[in-house]
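Format notes (please read before filing issues)

Several people have asked whether sequences and structure tokens are stored in separate files. They are not. Every record keeps both together, in the order shown below: the sequence lines, then the token lines. Line labels are part of the format and must not be stripped during preprocessing.
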Amino acid sequence: MTDRFLRERELRAMTGLSRTTRWRLERAGQFPRKRRISPGAVGWLESEVLAWMDQGIDGVQTVHVRPRLVA
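Then the structure lines:
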């Protein structure tokens, strides 16, 4: 199988996760790291994303977020 890069729109449709949620999971080491494709483009390896999806929700721990203060 040939691996390919998934771009933002396809990744969001595939995972159902927002960019911010994926960023938090990525920082916590719980989502595959994005790769720089060119100076202005990033992508995620499809094989890594599929492996992450196969491990299921049990592989994701709660990501703690600071509460937003609303005035």
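For reference, the curators noted about this record: The chain is about 40% helix and 15% strand. Helices lie at 8-15, 19-27, 46-55.
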